[in-house]
Amino acid sequence: MKRVFLLLGLLLLAACAPRTTPPANTALIEGPVGFYPAQPGLDWVYLPPRAPLGDPPIRLSILGPTTFEGQPAIRFRLSGRGLERSYYRQIDASGVRLLGIEDFDRLQIARYTPPIQEYPPPASLTVGARWGGQTREVIELRVGNQVTRVVDRLLDYTYTVLGRSNVSVPAGSFEVYRIGLEYRDPRNPSLRENFEVWFFPGVGEVFTSMNFTDQGGLSLVNRNFR
To answer: Rg (Cα) of the chain, in Å, rounded?
Structure first.
């Protein structure tokens, strides 16, 4: 599920209005869903680690194939607790690439050129693996017919598989890959942000520190596939 990239405050400008979490896809999906799950209809439920299980959740859902800026993509929707965000990704044998993000019904759009390589080919996801690159990040606010470019910059990023660990979250116990992420401004390398993601093949992200960092990140509570 996947990142707010350095601009959490800006991305939450429109979060003041209360929003409801869309109903879950309760139909259980049986069978393998791939190393990097990408099947339409998949649904994950998350909460901050210290939140009671009865609290309103954050839900990540795969809506299915679409296009983003003219490129084929798979749309992921993250919603609940004030968030309303769509991630546009390409997932194939070369891994997972993030093309862009839309917030609050296209109020804000972020584009990444070239796409950010979020995950490598499955065979390359091993302890010690490292990948990254540089992308141009363009973020625009769109209000009515007015478009305002608020960010246009280069962004360096590095992913490192720190190790494998047995962890327990409300959704169960998993032997996850612990992946560290670092984002840097190449014009000022001292400006950087660091996050951690726990990934389990065939399930997805069990924990991420990227969203709700003030509440300790997000932990997986449930999913609609086995």
So the answer is: 17
